């Protein structure tokens, strides 16, 4: 198993004792070529992403100023994860698990923004009858989700706790028999080949 870090700042933090869980997650979970954590402040980070993909290493793009365009570009280059540099240690194990399972990992705030962008796409239309019976509160949560609100924003809009928002979201996902918000978006609507 190989382990790589690209970027001076990442090299510094990789030697710290509190990086142990990060290092262990990288070493223990990928059976192919390893994980390469790539710092976007490096001038050639996009080339590094392409290069490591070519040798079957899973790139994780680490950004100090995360935004949706940079994330989308990273994923198009072949990155398997996109992470805020200030949260690398907190999410390293989840990132490694997602990659191991064949998935992608992106931060929740950017998932919300991406969800909103997809729902606003001119070719996206909601299905008229999804067949699922939602409570009034669940319908409100779903509408706020389609507007791109985060759990925190929904809790403030509806004057409920974030935990209650999460419980309603879990109930919505369960009723639609989907695991995440992107799958929910695909289940409740469809993308037409031509915008209407």
From TrEMBL:
A Gene Ontology BP annotation from the UniProt entry: regulation of DNA-templated transcription
SUPFAM superfamilies: C-terminal effector domain of the bipartite response regulators (SSF46894)
SMART domains: HTH_LUXR (SM00421)
Alphabetical list of InterPro entries matching this protein: Sig_transdc_resp-reg_C-effctor, Tscrpt_reg_LuxR_C, WalR-like
Keywords for this protein: DNA-binding
GO molecular function: DNA binding
Record-linked Pfam families: GerE
Record bears the keyword DNA-binding: yes
CDD domains attached to this UniProt entry: LuxR_C_like
Highest taxon above the source species: Bacteria
Domain HTH luxR-type positions: 127-192
Protein name: HTH luxR-type domain-containing protein
Organism: Alteromonas confluentis
């Amino acid at each position: 198993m190989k382990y790589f870090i690209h970027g001076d700042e990442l090299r510094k933090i990789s030697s710290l004792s509190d990086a142990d869980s990060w290092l262990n997650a990288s070493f223990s979970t990928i059976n192919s070529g390893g994980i390469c954590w790539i710092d976007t402040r490096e001038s050639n980070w996009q080339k590094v992403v392409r290069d490591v993909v070519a040798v079957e290493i899973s790139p994780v793009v680490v950004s100090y100023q995360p935004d949706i365009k940079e994330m989308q570009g990273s994923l198009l280059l072949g990155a398997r994860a996109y992470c805020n540099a200030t949260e690398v240690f907190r999410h390293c194990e989840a990132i490694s698990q997602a990659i191991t399972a064949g998935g992608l990992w992106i931060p929740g705030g950017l998932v919300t923004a991406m969800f909103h962008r997809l729902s606003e796409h001119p070719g996206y239309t909601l299905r008229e009858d999804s067949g699922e019976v939602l409570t009034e509160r669940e319908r409100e949560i779903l509408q706020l989700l389609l507007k791109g609100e985060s759990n925190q924003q929904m809790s403030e809009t509806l004057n409920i706790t974030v935990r209650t928002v999460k419980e309603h979201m879990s109930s919505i996902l369960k009723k639609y028999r989907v695991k995440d918000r992107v799958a929910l978006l695909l289940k409740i609507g469809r993308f037409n080949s031509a915008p209407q």
